[in-house]
């Protein structure tokens, strides 16, 4: 009975892990998952003899004293590299001369750490780092914490699998942010972060790092209950050039089929694998991914190209270090050098001055780059970047490339050092440093550039969400003198829009209409649109939720403001001061007279969720987070932007991030969208 239940739970949880971490397609809620996991843990606690290595409870950490060296049964070879398409063609032509036209398999080369996993009769028994290819380190316990690595396969086969452990770019950025916050050194790149995480003696640390794995090689071995026919062959590693055991070849004719078999066993395989007819096909694949690689959430530094036919692979064999039937095409570097022509100073909506590098146009990651970010003036000082310098620019996960390094040539020192501006590039006002910040600020409320940035923000999705009125329209309206600030938008008529370039009656009507419609946006949106310092979307939501109307908020004392959870003393002060500023009060009057009045707060439908605080995270399927918040408020509940011990529930959608982690740490109940709907309906 108990054993049956334990087996059932193990299977369900392993299946759920597979769906979530391998297929990226969750099929049960976190709530259900947690319930099953807790039940399994409890049953195992009562029946410790029933704990098996493939139990999902065994993924949690343990502490090792050191890692033990482990001699690989089959050598892990390196790959020869090619750096251009000509060499790639040459490699292929050599093969065709001897073996005729060959199908090739192209796979992205993941920039991570190669490891070998051993399964006996479908159970994960050992994981070893590549090391020098002959001997690696046994890091089984750490690998067990990685949920993309199955503890039990869908079929009871014995197999050695190779693949690459990697850290997703988003997780890498999050980890570095945390490191910086804790005063620790950030990792240089996702690969280093993955390596550092794998080499933790305390595997509970590894468990917290979001690592994953793509598998790319299968070496099958004979085993009990094996469903495929295999030749028994105890071919131990012998330092000769034969590596792939014969039995694999009797099971599969091609490399591609063996990868598809890995998928069937439950391994995570990179979805971008492609079968190519010839070298030209493979070159096209390389070209395609040289551009698209920046869109991926993992780092890739090239393409591995293999001969598909395993019999041909066998015949071609190996050199002393690498197989002859495979090559790694390396992408051109993500960093290029160019000349810094100028440093342009832009003014943001808060008045912060941001330096932008103007560059001699250069090709990088599939596009021409002429501008790059310099972050702030401290960064310019740190880099000691001077106009005329040769600089390295880099485009990684970011959409906007950035200047990362200056080439220290002789001339660099002959060029004048860059000095931050003293006056606003837009209005010439004296720039100020705000306490505790690195940015320089233009504090002139009428600064034209600042106003323009504010208008752009006013119409944006996060603020008043005015469709059809984009940056280019705003620029035209601004240049023509039709608008000086966001309020002027509400004074425009149809004719004004029709005077703009390429604007016909229909689109003029749409623009005019969209602006009128925005007049009754909820208070939280209007507050966001004000661009009050430190008040973003989340804080605006808290304020609107607490006070309901603009009048109440304006009358709130600084103390009452700072008492709201999630609003500290600094924000309370900024908000309080905003509503004490005469210019702002005049603006509010004007907005009102133009008919801009937030929709009244929705009445509570019931008190069903009274006293409960929800935190929302991730992407929901059937509603937006704003809509879910609205439902919570209508039922008397509250929402908060951060997870604390006072949080009742975390509603987690897809791609939920750190809030979910924190909820798990604090033991806060996690709801799926389905749970939430069930809870709020009926
Ligand atoms: Zn200014």
Detailed description of the structure:
- The two termini are 36 Å apart.
- The protein has six domains: 2-58, Helix hairpin bin (Helix Hairpins, Orthogonal Bundle), CATH 1.10.287; 81-330, DNA ligase/mRNA capping enzyme (D-amino Acid Aminotransferase, Chain A, domain 1, 2-Layer Sandwich), CATH 3.30.470; 337-393 and 400-433, Nucleic acid-binding proteins (OB fold (Dihydrolipoamide Acetyltransferase, E2P), Beta Barrel); 448-520, 5' to 3' exonuclease, C-terminal subdomain (DNA polymerase, domain 1), CATH 1.10.150; 523-593, 5' to 3' exonuclease, C-terminal subdomain (DNA polymerase, domain 1); 613-680, Rossmann fold (3-Layer(aba) Sandwich), CATH 3.40.50.10190.
- It has 682 residues and is an alpha+beta fold.
- Helix content is 37%, strand content 19%.
- The chain is globular and about 80 Å long.
- Mean pLDDT is 86; it is low at 222-250.
- The strands form five sheets. Strands 12, 13, 14, 15, 16, 17 and 18 form a seven-stranded antiparallel sheet that branches. A five-stranded mixed sheet has the order 2-11-10-3-9. It has a four-stranded antiparallel sheet with strand order 5-4-7-8.
- Strand 19, helix 24 and strand 20 (638-640) form a beta-alpha-beta unit.
- Bound molecules: zinc ion.
- Zinc ion binds next to loops.
